[in-house]
């Protein structure tokens, strides 16, 4: 059995700053690996307060899709924790060159020797860790950003993280069993490099997902009620659309 657990579902600065939803990352757990995707503010706390609790020693590593703070702030403390402050060489990190090496790097250099492996995400890059295999795809989001398409326990699980919509996204994430979309906005807004509900409709119509999960909500989505938006989309297209909530666990 594998699972996805949403420790937090906040997106955009105001929702994160006010903690209207938790801003922690997402747990990806297979039979032999546990990875944290985008460990934003509060991830370490939410791991310990989850029900059931997720012991930090069970975590094998991190996938960090980009440097923005709502995705990256707990990355260093988690890496330090799983390696026991460098007392043991352990764990893996998948992230961008910008996060590792630029003047805006968010991974502290002293942590690098603690890890068993550090892998730089690239467009079309294929990565394997234990029984998880995934491909990374470049997004359009200002900071160097990659979405991921995982093969895990016989299922295709795609995380379409922060991005401005562009047509190639459809082909990247086509035929996913679980299509997880960061839907910050209810409607499009010029200059905002985030997905909105009209973009969700494009994915439903053209990417042939079996199930869609929306997360990473900004204020316009919270005001509209993500659950109501999901219900409307499900009824309109005949595809199950779920609005993630803090603590949601999806098993498969």
From TrEMBL:
InterPro entries: Metallo-B-lactamas, RibonucZ/Hydroxyglut_hydro. SUPFAM superfamilies: Metallo-hydrolase/oxidoreductase. Residues 22-216 form the Metallo-beta-lactamase domain. It comes from the Bacteria. PANTHER family: HYDROLASE C777.06C-RELATED, HYDROLASE C777.06C-RELATED-RELATED. This is Metallo-beta-lactamase domain-containing protein.
């Amino acid at each position: 059995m594998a699972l996805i657990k949403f420790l937090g579902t906040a997106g955009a600065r105001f929702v994160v700053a006010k903690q209207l939803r938790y801003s922690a990352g997402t747990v990806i757990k297979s039979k032999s690996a546990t990875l944290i995707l985008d460990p934003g503010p509060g991830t370490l706390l939410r791991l310990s307060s989850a029900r059931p609790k997720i012991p930090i020693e069970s975590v094998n590593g991190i996938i960090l899709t980009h440097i923005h703070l709502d995705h990256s702030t707990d990355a260093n403390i988690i890496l330090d924790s799983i390696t026991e402050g460098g007392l043991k060489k352990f764990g893996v990190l998948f992230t961008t060159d910008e996060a590792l090496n630029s003047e805006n790097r968010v991974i502290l250099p002293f942590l690098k020797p603690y890890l068993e492996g550090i892998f730089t995400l690239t467009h079309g890059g294929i990565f394997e860790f234990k029984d998880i295999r995934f491909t990374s795809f470049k997004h359009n989001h200002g900071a160097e950003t990659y979405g991921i398409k995982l093969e895990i326990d016989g299922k295709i699980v795609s995380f379409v993280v922060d991005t401005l919509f562009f047509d190639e996204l459809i082909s990247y994430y086509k035929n996913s069993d679980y299509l997880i979309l960061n839907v910050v906005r209810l409607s499009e807004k010029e200059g905002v490099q985030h997905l909105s509900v009209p973009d969700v409709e494009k994915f439903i119509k053209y990417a042939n997902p079996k199930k869609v999960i929306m997360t990473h909500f900004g204020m316009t989505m919270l005001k509209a009620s993500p659950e109501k938006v999901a219900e409307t989309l499900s009824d309109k297209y005949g595809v199950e659309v779920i609005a993630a909530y803090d603590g949601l666990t999806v098993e498969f």
